[in-house]
Write a structure and sequence with these properties.
single chain, 21 helices, 17 strands, 41% helix, globular, disordered N terminus
Length: 697
């Protein structure tokens, strides 16, 4: 199952992680409460639906679950406290919602237990193909193994029976990360109070996926850092990295604030050893919540898996044929529907065709190298061209364009709150443009496999910062390059990525800046604005089906252009767009020079680029997708290919996964809803037992 496309597991409103307890105050009431008082009970075996589904003889599998006030308080704090009350409109409504959420969670957990013990004789095959057999005797042995432990620890053992060692390791690692993140926020507050540290604002946009956690990553050495037992300036255990300005003193104070918040909300029991954070009942309850979340997710995966098995290749092929025919009909009747579809294109929203008579549609990446403020002011102040009744100032602009100097915009990735930079080994793969002083790259963790972050997609990652950086002073200085310098960088980096000469380019040269910009009839000649144009020579035909397939030529080119856009582009609106700007054959809202060039690039087909100016500066326009090749209609999606459905990133893969996710997700969601309805008679909630919680808010 493709994890990215996998339908979401059963969702619950109860948050399964710790949070900052700002704005929450239950102290005056909670200290007088019996926190172990039961506010709800759940036993799905008492429902008629249980015997019908699992059999009368299986009722003993499930025992009654008791939900306490302490669990309600924990859920209240984790969900934001007072903000939760504000969201629901009253304290009573908020706590009623919490009670219902906790009840639903128990229904799912009890059902999951019965499902995995009874379904297919207890047999289950995990995503990696490992087979398991769950039995009641095995479950009871797992619980008995913890002996006379607390109820929380016995519940952990019971839930843990249905989870793999990797599942549990991930849950514990993520919980430690959550605690450290929580303490980091407290420590940042203290550092700001003491040292008034401020980080650079306006940090350059980063590519989508940067520092996205790898859901399977576990650092066995990672521990919660409370400031105890670790010397100043030493690295805490494992891969945890302290916040800037951290000291053991600040960290201890942060931990003290955290413990005070727990105590203030009755989440620390008398006699607990607060010096050992993982021994706290609060930590164990959060761990139990994590295990519960994983088992509920596993149940959701099981529902999704059953639904997915019903989806056949022929169903997807027929779905594609019908969807494409419907799009062609709709787009031909109303071209605005095509334009709207292009604006919402994604991994799950496809444009499969364009009208036969109006097919010059596509997408372009725009890299803007801008005029400086002084140059823009000079252009505004200049006189219009002689004889131009529309006020154009092309001659003045051309003279200014010659001196436009672009710079690498990624400096704030060094000096922002997060430093994304790293200096690779001298032998490491990197593009320097022939300048040995260029040493710095970005997002190391996103390119190292088997780390805590997912591999960064659609970003080649070997273009060094074009300038210098002093790590000791945290000071950077970009190198200034003109349009020819940029085009040299672009061609050099593309050739480097492909390992051969792949770029064919023609440029106007020096005469460009002094030419006549008008036709004989006085109209603007937009073709003359093309300063350079080029194309990439792929080994075969450009295959739009493979633009998101890692290491394909199409993806390699797109990833290089996209990285250069993050490096130089000041048109930040397009930095994380799916394929770039949607371009139509009709009149657009783009400035005229850009519109002409973008439509020209799309007409040439994907893998082509054009360089033109506007009153904003230079535009380097690269076509990523087109329904045209050299002005001839091109249909990249002729069919759905089952043979490609497992090639991650290919069109057939994305199409299949989208159908699978939508269909299976709907089926699984309907089943989840039905489950709650079927077992609506399996619980009791005692509102009077928690009404004093609501009176304190």
């Amino acid at each position: 199952m493709n994890k990215k496309q996998k339908a979401a597991a059963i969702a619950l409103s109860a948050v399964m992680a710790c949070g900052i307890f700002a704005g929450c105050d239950l102290v005056t009431t909670n200290t007088r409460l019996d926190l172990n008082q039961v506010v709800a009970t759940v036993n799905i075996a008492d429902s008629e639906s249980f015997a019908k589904e699992f059999g009368e003889d299986k009722k003993s599998i499930v025992t009654t679950a008791e939900i306490t006030k302490l669990e309600m308080i924990l859920s209240y704090m984790s969900n934001g406290g007072d903000s939760l009350v504000n969201s629901y409109g009253s304290a009573k409504a908020a706590f009623d919602a919490i009670a219902n959420s906790l009840v639903q969670r128990q229904i799912y957990l009890q059902y999951a237990k019965a499902y995995f013990l009874v379904k297919d004789g207890g047999k289950w095959t995990d995503e990696d193909g490992t087979e398991y057999t769950y039995t009641q005797a095995g479950y009871e042995a797992a619980v008995a193994a913890v002996g006379d432990a607390s109820a929380t620890e016995r519940d952990l053992a019971g839930l843990g029976y249905f989870l793999t060692d990797q599942n549990k390791a991930v849950a514990e690692y993520n919980l430690r990360v959550s605690f450290n993140n929580n303490l980091d926020e407290y420590e940042k507050e203290i550092i700001k109070e003491e040292e008034d540290i401020e980080y650079e604002s306006g940090v350059r946009t980063t590519p989508t996926g940067v520092n996205t956690a790898n859901s399977d990553f576990v650092d066995p050495a990672y521990r919660i850092y409370t400031g105890t037992g670790i010397a100043d300036n030493a690295s805490p255990k494992g891969s945890y990295e302290p916040v800037d300005g951290s000291t053991t003193s600040y960290r201890k104070r942060a931990y003290d604030r955290f413990i005070t918040a727990l105590r203030g909300n009755s989440l620390i029991e008398k006699g607990e050893n607060t010096s050992d954070v993982e021994s706290l009942n609060y930590f164990k309850m959060q761990k139990l919540n994590s295990y519960a979340g994983l088992l509920i997710q596993k149940l959701g995966d099981a529902f999704t898996k059953e639904a997915e098995e019903k989806i056949a290749d022929q169903y997807c092929a027929d779905y594609f044929t019908e969807a494409k025919a419907n799009q062609l009909k709709d787009f031909t009747a109303d071209i605005s529907k095509l334009e709207s579809a292009m604006d919402s294109i994604s991994d799950t929203s496809f444009v499969l065709t364009a009208p036969e008579t109006n097919f010059e549609f596509g997408f372009v990446v725009n890299i803007l190298l801008p005029f400086s403020t002084a140059q823009s002011d000079a252009l505004k102040a200049a006189d219009q061209d002689f004889g131009d009744t529309k006020g154009n100032k092309f001659s003045t602009r051309a003279a200014l364009l010659k001196n436009v100097l672009a710079t690498d915009q990624r400096g704030s990735w060094f000096t922002g709150e997060t430093d994304y930079s790293y200096k690779p080994e001298s032998s490491a793969a990197k593009y320097t443009g022939g300048d040995d002083k260029r040493e710095w790259l970005f997002f190391e963790d996103n390119f190292a496999k088997d780390t805590k972050y997912d591999v960064l997609k659609n970003y080649y990652g070997q273009y060094t910062y074009n300038g210098t950086y002093d790590a000791d002073k945290r000071a950077y200085k970009p190198t200034r390059i003109n349009i020819d310098g940029f085009l040299g960088e672009m061609k050099g980096y593309l050739d480097y990525a492909f390992g051969s000469e792949v770029v064919s380019e023609t440029k106007t040269g020096e005469s460009y800046y002094t030419q006549d910009w008008y036709k004989e009839n006085g109209e603007v000649d937009y073709e003359k604005f093309i300063y350079a144009k080029g194309s990439l020579n792929f080994a075969g035909e450009y295959d739009a089906n493979r633009i998101f397939v890692a290491d394909s030529n199409e993806n390699k080119a797109y990833s290089v252009i996209r990285e250069l856009s993050f490096a130089y582009n000041t048109d930040t609106a397009g930095l994380n767009s799916y394929l770039g700007y949607a371009v139509t054959a009709n009149k657009t809202d783009f400035v005229s020079e850009f519109e002409y060039a973008a439509q020209y690039a799309v007409k040439q087909g994907a893998g082509n680029y054009v360089v033109v100016p506007s009153d904003y500066g230079w535009h380097i326009i690269y076509c990523t997708f087109s329904f045209s090749k050299n002005g001839v209609r091109y249909d990249p999606f002729t069919q759905y290919d089952p043979a490609q459905k497992d090639t991650e990133g290919s069109f057939s893969n994305l199409f299949f996964e989208s159908i699978k996710a939508n269909t299976a997700s709907t089926d699984a969601s309907n089943r989840q809803t039905k489950l709650l309805a079927d077992y609506n008679d399996s619980y009791d909630i005692f509102e009077n037992r928690y009404k004093n919680l609501t009176s304190s808010n």
